[in-house]
Design a protein that fits this description.
Layout lengths: L2 E5 L3 H12 L3 E6 L15 E4 L5 H6 L7 E4 L4 H14 L4 E5 L3 H9 L3 E3 L1 H14 L1
Parallel strand pairs: 1-2, 1-4, 2-3, 4-5, 5-6
């Protein structure tokens, strides 16, 4: 069982939180908007906290000091990048994953050591393969 802290409870964050919770992991979701927690499934047993993922005190309240994994999946690339850097370099979270929409920025921050994913690149690659088959 891993202790997972997810920043962002949109469609992706809520889905990931529910999947990891159902798999038996200890999950905490952090979001600036309490209304976003409505997306969590009714059987979600993890924590849902209102807070800003680039604020050190909010991260501490969410348990980042004990986290095995930090995932930044808000709608904002800058916020995700900043929070991921804080998790990795200040709190030394063992695994930090950051969603970045902009493919160029995703590549740049990957070269700086962040584990990044770009849905833009992933979907473009999938579409290209389908169109070529």
């Amino acid at each position: 069982m891993k202790k997972v802290l997810i920043m962002g409870c949109g469609r992706l964050g809520s889905r990931l939180a529910s999947l990891l919770d159902a798999a038996g992991h200890s999950v905490t979701v952090l979001d600036v908007d309490v209304f976003s927690f409505r997306r969590l499934l009714p059987n979600y047993k993890g924590k849902a906290l209102v807070g800003n993922g680039v604020d050190v005190e909010s991260l501490k309240k969410a348990g980042i000091q004990e986290a095995d994994v930090f995932v930044a999946v808000t709608q904002g690339d800058n916020r995700n990048i900043m929070a991921a850097q804080i998790a990795k370099h200040i709190f030394n979270v063992p695994q930090v994953i950051c969603r970045i929409y902009d493919p160029l920025r995703q590549e740049f921050f990957q070269t700086l050591g962040l584990e990044t994913l770009s849905p833009t690149t992933i979907i473009a690659d999938i579409l290209k393969k389908r169109l070529e088959s």
